[in-house]
Design brief:
alpha+beta, 3 helices, 4 strands, elongated
Length: 109
């Protein structure tokens, strides 16, 4: 029984080693971000997508911005057209507590 148990452990370890993990990179924005800053952050998101990583775009809502989450959605709607040719929209802009999130996956080659 000991040898059998050892073989099972070995198989599990090998399966874990060959398992593919999904890397998720996060790019944060604020509601009052300038166009130049958006372009700079989008450039990084494009690099992540080209490297085959998933990207979570996040807008942090502070203070008064919490009452107007549509400002965060507007920021993400300005970002998405720049990323459209590099990735697929997995999850549209959606509020999650203090954040508005959008999830983008790389396009299949």
């Amino acid at each position: 029984y000991g040898k059998f148990k050892y073989e099972q452990e070995k198989k599990k370890k090998e399966a874990r080693k060959n398992q593919k993990t999904i890397d998720v990179k996060e790019v944060k924005f604020s509601c009052k971000i300038a166009d130049g800053d958006i372009a700079y952050k989008v450039k990084h998101a494009i690099e992540f997508l080209e490297a085959g990583k998933h990207v979570k775009l996040r807008v942090f809502l502070r203070g008064r911005e919490m009452a107007n989450p549509e400002w965060g959605v507007d920021v993400l709607n300005r970002v998405w057209p720049m990323l459209e040719e590099y990735g697929n929209l997995e999850q549209d802009a959606k509020r999650d507590g203090r954040y508005v999130n959008m999830y983008v996956t790389p396009k299949k080659k």
